[in-house]
Design a protein that fits this description.
The complex is a heterodimer. By secondary structure, chain A is an alpha/beta fold. Chain A contains 10 helices and 10 strands. In chain A, the strands form 2 sheets. In chain A, strands 6-7-8-3-9-10 form a 6-stranded mixed sheet, sandwiched between helices. Chain A has a 4-stranded antiparallel sheet with strand order 2-1-4-5, with helices on one face. A two-stranded antiparallel sheet of chain B has the order 1-2. Chain B has a two-stranded antiparallel ribbon with strand order 3-4. The chains are: A alpha/beta, B mainly alpha.
């Protein structure tokens, strides 16, 4: 296995009284795709949001346990959350582009980080749109409203926007769940290309997708991590009965 | 199978008829009111009427100073109310957690909107003029400058009156910015303030503008709050003073002067006239001007809101 990027130890998360994650312990390797699968409400989306502290935005969330990224505990009180989120980019289930131009969406991150130079910004836009494999489609529409693009294009633009702040980890929360099969295929191809440089964590409802794009898969059920192994192992000979039942479609 | 004939729904038809009649009644009343004012008022509208001062004990002349005073007061009012209201709304919507304290603030804002406007007038007199104004005079040794009814205090009082309108419409606007846009911004490493400034406020701007315009049209139509606060029966001069930096002078609104006000002017012409037959047409004219002014402001607000919804509707 490659070097480890993220280490999670004994993580518990509570929404008020209700415990949403129970004793999660797992290691996520660098420059690999790690998929989280499981039925709705199993905690996989909650867990991915632990990794960039997005849950901080929700009231009454209590977390205990430790999460290390490159050896640093991200729940340490002295940690700069803003800096953490620059290094851990996120792509959401539904495209959440700003009602601004394509160009303005991409440069939003770099701009709040203080990059003002027009030439540098131009370069970032071209680089990230190329990385997200959408440059050819939008290069003549950089000043159009981003919301006028198709759903699949919008989602790839969201990925490009996340890349613009040069994160090392990219979290994807069901990035293709609202897309048609062709757009989904494009996103999956993109994930495949991105893992050369980035550590990718993806939540997905679609088991075929997990099987296609990921190197390892974690199966969550009712807030617990049931099984975590290489994707081929999970899908061919899972060691737990619950995992087998889920991937063979007996529940979920 | 036996299919039945359709039964007549008598109660339904009667209710529908009644509802329609009420509706028509309302529309007719509105048109009678506006029509009467329009027909009686349009005759006196002329450039002179809009610009000149009243003459001969208000039986001749125009309403120029009253229009000027209305614009000056509402302008200052907006300068007070919008920054204060927008900041309060940002605090309540973005920073405040749902606690006992913030619930009290929210309840107070809603109650403020329900206070009769004459109470605001008395509050303005007691708080702004007698407390703050007199206090300023004592501290600054300016003699009797601030501690008397003036444009400044009328604007400040109207600002308090329209504050709930500004806060509530800004709150709505801030609330309608999708959570997903905030998350996108935080996800890119933005701080809370950067998110508010670059994502939330730009999208809330049309809503804030709508609130501002509604506040103007409310403030411009009020009479009771400014009764004791410097609205004058008749003033020969506009409340203007030269504001000088070195030798360079520009005329500015003088906030320590008294002023004439359209709504108050109409009230005065209706109640204090020495010759009602002669003042009547002028009064209709002034009313028409006031209605057209507020109507135009409301239309602008509606257009902004419509465009705002259209932008959001795309999401």
């Amino acid at each position: 296995m490659k070097e480890t990027k993220i280490v999670v130890k004994d993580l518990n998360l509570y929404y008020g009284e209700k415990q949403a994650l129970k004793n999660i312990t797992l290691d996520i390797p660098a420059k690999r795709v790690t998929a989280f699968i499981g039925p709705s409400g199993c905690g996989k989306s909650t867990f991915i949001r632990v990794l960039n502290r997005m849950n901080d935005l929700i009231d009454h969330v209590k977390i205990d346990g430790e999460v290390f990224i490159d050896g640093v505990n991200i729940y340490d009180r002295s940690l700069d959350i803003v800096n953490l989120r620059k290094n851990v980019g996120m792509v959401f289930q539904k495209s959440n582009l700003f009602p601004k131009s394509v160009f303005e969406n991409i440069v939003y991150g770099p701009k709040i980080n203080g990059i003002r130079d027009k030439k540098t910004l131009d370069e970032i836009v071209e680089r990230t749109l190329n990385q997200a494999a959408i440059w050819d489609e939008v290069k003549d529409r950089l000043n159009d409203n981003a919301l006028s693009l198709s759903g699949g294009q919008q989602q790839r633009l969201c990925i490009a926007r996340a890349l613009a702040v040069e994160p090392e980890i990219i979290l994807m929360d069901e990035p293709a769940s609202a897309l048609d099969p062709i757009s989904t295929a494009k996103i999956e191809e993109l994930i495949h290309d991105l893992k050369k440089e980035y550590t990718i964590v993806i939540v997905t409802h679609n088991m075929q997708q997990a099987a296609r794009v990921s190197d390892q898969t974690a199966f969550f059920y009712l807030g617990e991590l049931i099984e975590f192994d290489r994707t081929t192992t999970i899908f061919t000979k899972p060691s737990k009965k619950q995992t087998e039942d889920y991937i063979t479609g007996r529940f979920g | 199978m036996e299919l039945k004939r359709r039964k007549k729904d008598y109660m339904g038809n009667i209710s529908l008829g009644l509802i329609r009649a009420t509706f028509i009644f309302l529309v007719v009343i509105l048109f009678l009111l506006l029509g009467k004012i329009f027909v009686e008022g349009i005759g006196v509208i002329s450039p002179e009427f809009l610009l000149d001062s009243p003459k001969n004990n208000m039986t001749e002349g125009g309403i120029g100073p009253a229009i000027f005073g209305t614009i000056a007061v509402t302008f200052l009012m907006i300068l007070f109310a919008v920054p204060l209201g927008v900041c309060s709304a940002i605090y309540l919507n973005e920073y405040a957690t749902d606690s006992f304290f913030t619930r009290i603030i929210r309840t107070s804002i809603n109650n403020l909107a329900g206070v009769p406007s004459i109470v605001f007038g008395l509050f303005g007199l007691g708080f702004f003029i007698l407390f703050i104004g007199k206090g300023l005079d004592d501290v600054l040794q300016t003699g009797l400058l601030f501690g008397q009814p003036a444009l400044l205090w009328a604007s400040a009082t109207l600002a308090v009156l329209v504050l709930p309108i500004v806060i509530v419409s800004t709150l709505e606007a801030l609330n309608s910015v999708p959570k997903s846009h905030r998350e996108a911004s935080y996800g890119l490493g933005a701080t809370k303030w950067q998110t508010i400034r670059s994502v939330v406020l730009p999208q809330a701007r049309p809503g804030i503008l709508t609130g501002t315009i509604l506040a103007i049209s409310r403030g411009a139509g009020e009479t009771a709050p400014i009764l004791f606060l410097g609205a004058a029966f008749f003033l020969p001069n506009l409340p203007i003073a030269d504001f000088c930096i070195g030798d360079y002078c520009i005329p500015m609104i003088n906030p320590t002067e008294q002023f004439m006000y359209l709504a108050y002017h109409i009230f005065i012409m209706a109640t204090q006239s020495a010759n009602p037959t002669k003042t009547m047409p002028l009064q209709y004219g002034a009313t028409l001007v006031l209605i057209v002014l507020t109507f135009l402001l409301n239309i602008t607000a509606i257009i902004f809101r419509y465009r705002f919804r259209k932008i959001l509707g795309k999401l």
